[in-house]
User: Fold these one by one.
Assistant:
Number 1:
Amino acid sequence: MPEMGDNGITRARRIVRWMLNMTLALVWFVALVSTLVGVGLESVSLARAIATLISLVVFSWLFLRITRAILNRSYATREVVLSGILALALAALGGGNPTGWGFVPLGWLSVAAVGVSRRNAVLLGVGTALVASPIMILAMLQDPDWDGSVTGVVVGVLLYNLLLAAAFPWANRLWVWIWQLAEQAHVGKEAQSRLAVAEERLRFARDLHDLVGHQLSAIAVKSELAARLAAHPDAAAAEMAEVRALARKALRELREAVRGYRELDLVAELGSVRAVLEAAGVDCRLHLPYRDVPPEVAPVFAWVIREAVTNVLRHSTASVCDITVRFTGEEAVLEVRNDGVTPKPVEDLGSGLAGLTERLAAVGGTLTARPNGSGEFTLRAVAPVLAGVPA
């Protein structure tokens, strides 16, 4: 299942709204067919047909308000009550045919039973079947073309209503439940991301305090002592020299700390992209050496992996992604291969690849990214390894 971003949640909400309103479309279909057949056979007057269709428009407006309330996690009690009364009136006014206007109460039930407890949903289903069945039974018994038994009509209509009353509402409840789970997962992921950022800030603050706090405290003490020794130039000069040395040490440690935060960790990045790919439904296969990648190429390879996986998620339809890292005493190679070749030219994949090319050029490496002719797309980064690294 693709990872759910804001656009994914919006699309899921739209799909669920369509599914909820699909029953309304079915109501309109059976009502129109029943009305056209009745007018054609002159069993329904034109005035009566117009009145039922106008009432159906009002019912539809209430129906749409109910589905909107469902997606907003509320229950439109007033609309449910009014549309339920109107649904029974339409069933009676339209003739009550089970496959015609008699279907309207069942369409109403498909959304009225969403957003209530299971017990209330069952009660609504049973109640709708029992109330709508007499209307349908009378309509069928009054049909001059009907020649069946009364018992058969009663049993058939009851089974028909109970079956649909058990199917439509629970199908819609399932759709809404799945959407709510997706939304909760999305909200939980955002909360987790915010927590991770907060924890990183705290760690950064703690590291800065541990690395630089002691040096700055010593500088303050030394500066105060130098001020007291102003009458003794030699001693004051010695103290100020120590202040200068402490300040340089603090600055160096601060730069090292910031550099560590700016550089990506290759091992951490591999774990991160694997989790992201698998969450998006892409099988990620890692082929890694048993030794650590040389430190002079590991950070730039981490940037390449991040950008490559971003392009896989944005621009391909991949189901499998292979990430291979290998190196010798002379060069290190990274390959990211996926089976979802993009129809776009490489130059249309954004400015990320250009930035990676510059990063690799800075360490004497090269970058290539192209389809390989077998339905796969391969990104390959090569960077030299400093002499002395064991093969």
Note: Strands lie at 283-287, 320-327, 331-338, 366-371, 377-384.
Number 2:
Amino acid sequence: MKIRIVLASAVVAGAFSLTAIAISGVLSKEPVPPAIAEATLWTPDPLSMPQIADYDVTPPAAFHADNASPMRPLPLLQSVFAETALPEIEPPLITWSREIASGETLDAVLANAGIAAPARAEIALALGAEYDLRRLRPGHEITVISKVDGNPSRVELAVDDGVRIETVFGQELVTRVLEPDPEMVTFAGEAVIESSVFAALDKAGIPARFAVDMAQMLGGTVDFRRELSGGETMRILWREARDGNERIGQPELAFATLDLGETVYEIVWPDDGSGEATIYVDGEVLRVFAQPVEGARLSSVFGRRTHPVYGNVRMHTGVDFAAARGTPVKATAPGRVSFIGRRGGYGRVVEIAHGSDTLTRYAHLSEVPDTLEQGQRVLAGDMIGRVGATGTATGPNLHYEVLVDGRPTDPLSDDRLAEAAEREADDTAALERLAEARSLLAERLTSEFVQTTTERL
């Protein structure tokens, strides 16, 4: 086909050429030379049609009809459906958390979280079944985890010592108490007194609350105002319950030394929870003393003061230790229970006689153990009640008095209790405890020094 088109094109082109030449010959005034005229008469020979060769094409044997495989219809593809249902996507949860402020109730905090009144009542009943809600205080924390529709999914109340009370909403309310499993870790530090014991401990990174314990233990032996002129050294060994990096509860003193230059005072606290401490002077037992409330803040001292309730100036016949309601109160020296009951503004009281002339009084108690009876013998460190606010009190605290021949004396300076405790002291065991405490303090101070030096390098 292409060849035919080419031939036709050539013939047409030649015809046009001849026509053009003829016209130019007619119009030209000059005669055409014979050679040119002869050349214009030439035409190419016609092209012959191409011949297509005949080939005997034989298909392969595989395609012969005799050998062909029979054709079968292809099976239809079957759809496979998964029997397992897609996982349900849980709606997101909203977390709200806040500490309880002074004067707030649980209901007020839950209302602030946007929980409806019926749910608040359920939560209060559930939490109250595991924890006395009257013991709520500032610093306790409420966490509410709610669904997007505002209904609570879980409510958690974090109280003292890392304890959490959790209420989970489901087909029914489930409440449980979650207690931490802390590890007891021992620390050591050294402080140089410049202005006060409190400031020295705080500057050295040692819990400053230990200043109260030192004043309570040595208040009747060392005059901190007159005998501390500056430059005195204190070394402290203490224990902390740790849950990871979080401290659980309050730190506990284990050993303390106060070097005044000419005299060295040392105090060893046992790790049995009794709170009974042994005081040494230059390596010899001076006395045994148990503080009434461990780690409490000394909120009011002995002497004249403006009464916090009545507003007038009157004699304060004891010392006050501010502590959380329910904190254990312990006997400060061995003796015999002489009174259990109520005494006017003192509220609920326990009194212990130490010999014939000395008596200790523990007031504003919230409760007294059922096992404690009048006439019963107690030892230093025995629990005799719990901190409360009964009687005339502005808040939970222990009012502690020492009376000699019926007259109040300063509990931090009287030696009568020391004499009562000293009669029951075991000097051999006490000296062994002192040697162990000194060794542990030296070991921990060395370890702290090496660690600090390594961190600086």
Note: The CA atoms of residues 335 and 354 lie 5 Å apart.
Number 3:
Amino acid sequence: MQMATISRWTLAYFSGALVALVSALALMALGLGYPSEGLMEPRTLVVVHLITIGWLSLLMLGALMQFLPVLVGRELVWPKLPPVILALILSGLALLLCGFLALDGWHNAPVEFLTLGGLLLLAGFCVAAVMLFATLLSARSLPLPAGFVALGLLSLLVAATLGETLASVLAGLVGGNFSVALVMHGVGLHAAFGLGGWLTLAAMGVSYRLVSMFLVAPERKGVLTRMAFWSATIALGGLAGVLMILIATNASWSLGLALTGLAAALAIGAYLADIAGLYRTRRRARLELHMAGAVAGMAMLGLGAGLLAWALWTGSQPVLAAAIHVLALGWLGGLGLVMLYKIVAFLTWLECFAPHMGRMITPRVQDLVCERRAAPFFILYFAAELAGATAIVFGSDVVFRIATALQLLGVMMLIHQYVRARRLADLPEAWMDHPKPRLILPATRQRSVA
């Protein structure tokens, strides 16, 4: 298998992401944000950006810094940039959230925090995109899953630029007819490029590699893979066309949106069918917990896409909110949590035991975790996600808050499992005396099998 280095900052990205997820779920459980408040209320925007930037984007960037080199067979270009990117994103997110609270009259904070925070975020995402694109371009040839990542990175740049423009509009720095049109039609495009383009396409690319690796299944290179990729490319091109029309005319383009939706639906259908093919052709007979949990995450993608189509057809705001909730916390968040369960153990094994292979008996990656203990918390998380989405559709704020509190409990217990893996707490007795790694940052950059 491809030799690769452990990305020193990947676990720091994951740690920041989990803190943002816990914060967002806690706020929702306390009744802050939607559905207790409107979709465009400042505190709803705080929760939304904690999830999309703090949780999902940091999670995805951390994963890409570790696994993109494995995907393309090259080491990460400019490996000293990850801490700079992390600092830019965290400081930008903090200022952005303060700016949203300033719109709500919080301690007379200046609304200009919105623009400054957006600029720092844009800078951080641009540096990340340049580093990851350079890694892609350094490869002799690119497998098709890397194409999904490239499309996702392009979407990230557009989403970040749109976000900074919207922040300037909310701060009152941009006015006129364009600002009105941008608020009316640009928010949806911002969400589509971010949630649908950047996060979903990157998740597709990474999951192709990880699912194949963890299932010990042949990589998919057939018609369905190409259909998923080219349909996603057409959908992204359609979104870009809609954005260009908005900039040129201050109006939306209904036909372009409809074509984009059809192409996106085809891409999702082909991707899910392709992933099902990976499960059917796997060489590992027994599904480990994280791969069984990934099935639930994939099911959430199908459910969220169906709810989104229904919402757009009927114009129902509660169904639209439920669809976004399922896609963000069920599909992307759920898949992220189940993959973290394996990735944290995998990186810990690479750091602690891979250097000793061939010189001593070493434990398996699976020996670093206890599936029996963790399984109920994944069940709790996904069950609470379904309950929360149902509560949004039927307008039950109390049920939603209870479901979110249960979801938060599930996440906290899963974080405890990640920490146990990192502290080697579940290792068999024969290895209990092995030196424990640092919780977040590896001590050194070691070359290991990845």
Note: Confidence is low (pLDDT under 50) at residues 445-450.
